[in-house]
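User: Predict the complex with copper (II) ion.
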Amino acid sequence: MNRRTLLRLGGAALLGSLAGCSAGRRNGPQGVSMTDGFAYDPARITVPAGSTVRWVNDDDVRHSVTAYARGVPADASYFASGGFESERAARDDIGGGLIAAGDAYEHTFGTPGTYDYFCVPHEGSGMTGRVAVRADRRG
Ligand SMILES: [Cu+2]
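Assistant: Here is the predicted structure with copper (II) ion placed in the model:
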């Protein structure tokens, strides 16, 4: 089954939603922007378990959100834009995980722990990020 969760979003709606979900808000998706300079902004966020994180590509080049195989807690499922089931599969199909300008990728983090991820084409430029998931659930 294809677990792709790529979403199409309009540019204007995108900016509005990003402005409304800065890190630290307890409700709604937590937003991470992919920006020029090959970076995730913020590069590190902390969210309660059960949170959905939405990465939005605000850049004009394509990026991926690809978990490191060893960057995911042992009891958590692997995640990557393009729906890949492993880091190896994502690296073997660079184009398949790319998020176009104005598009977004979402993942819901049910298992507490630390998740490290990277952008396949820009890892060498230091495009990496981390999501820390706290054990306490919101609500
Ligand atoms: Cu990138």
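The two ends are 31 Å apart (CA to CA).
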